[in-house]
Design brief:
By secondary structure, this protein is an alpha+beta fold. About 45% of the residues lie in helices and about 25% in strands. The strands form four sheets. It has a three-stranded antiparallel β-sheet. Strands 6-7-8 form a three-stranded antiparallel β-sheet. Strands 1-4 form a two-stranded antiparallel ribbon. Helix 3 packs across helix 5. InterPro entries: Band_7, Band_7/SPFH_dom_sf, Prohibitin.
Length: about 280
């Protein structure tokens, strides 16, 4: 029976060696972090002061102590869209939807996470955007919000947000107001008013055009009258007689006419009779 039993003989210290190898693999896996494109990382020191605010790690392969933790966040430009109900200057509730582009300061990522937490968008960005939007929209009427003031409102909201987030390690790059929704009755009234204003502008344009055309025709007529007056003053009887004679001679040369000169016309001009 002893012959049928298989005996496993490990080398002396083999179990300990396997244990060491496994431990090294585990420690290595916990000590290495790969930070992806457009990301940054900060170290949370478990036995230290928490978030290390002195250094932000960039893209690539990084090594940290196995008892610490690397917190990785996006540091490239990002966007967030939202829709909120706000009040216009006359107290009418409007719904504004827009998009904000932002990015954390790379070198201050540790301070941002330490002071505002990992969810700093909800803790810091959203309240600032909402406050700025309510402040700015509250300065305008629904008609201004709906029509011509969109670009001005965007810039004012951006200025307000940047002011609120100053020294907060989060940079807002741009604000876009995508849509302003008004109650149907108010929207219809505004559209009707805008249409009437457009028609009025078109009518005024036609009137101005007609007035300019009348002025042009008047100036043209006055110019022609002045020219005729000058021409009439310059035509003496002698000049007219000479012109008449020249015209008569030209007619006489025509191959299609037979010219007969009979006697004398008024003022000594010949009388021309002819046929085809």
């Amino acid at each position: 029976m002893a012959n049928n039993q298989m005996e496993l003989n490990f080398p002396k210290g083999g179990v300990f060696t396997v244990f060491i190898i496994i431990a090294v693999i585990i420690l290595f896996s916990k000590s290495t972090v790969t930070i992806g494109p457009g990301e940054g990382g900060v170290v949370f020191e478990r036995f230290g002061d928490g978030i290390n605010t002195e250094k932000t790690y960039g893209e690539g392969f990084q090594i940290v102590a196995p008892w610490n933790e690397m917190i990785v966040r996006k540091v490239r430009q990002q966007s967030v869209s939202d829709e909120m109900n706000v009040l216009s200057v006359n107290g009418l509730e409007v719904k504004v939807s827009g998009t904000v582009w932002y990015e954390p300061e790379f070198s201050k990522l540790g301070l941002l996470i330490k002071t505002k937490g990992e969810d700093y968008e909800n803790e810091l960005l959203d309240p600032a955007v909402n406050a700025a939007a309510r402040s700015v929209v509250g300065r305008y009427t629904p008609e201004q919000l709906y029509s011509s003031k969109r670009d001005v409102i965007e810039q004012e909201i951006l200025d307000e947000v940047q002011k609120l987030l100053e020294d907060q390690y989060l940079v807002v790059k741009r604000v876009l107001v995508e849509d302003v929704k008004l109650p149907p009755t108010i929207r219809t009234a505004i559209e009707t008013k805008l249409k009437q204003e457009q028609e009025s502008l078109e009518y005024e344009f036609r009137l101005a055009k007609a007035k300019k055309e009348a002025e042009r025709q008047k100036i043209d007529a006055e110019g022609k009258a002045t020219a005729n007056k000058i021409l009439s003053a310059s035509l003496t009887e002698k000049i007219l007689q000479e012109k008449g004679i020249e015209a008569t001679l030209e007619l006489a040369k025509s191959n299609n006419s037979k010219v007969v000169v009979i006697g004398s016309g008024k003022d000594g001009m010949p009388i021309i009779l002819g046929n085809q």
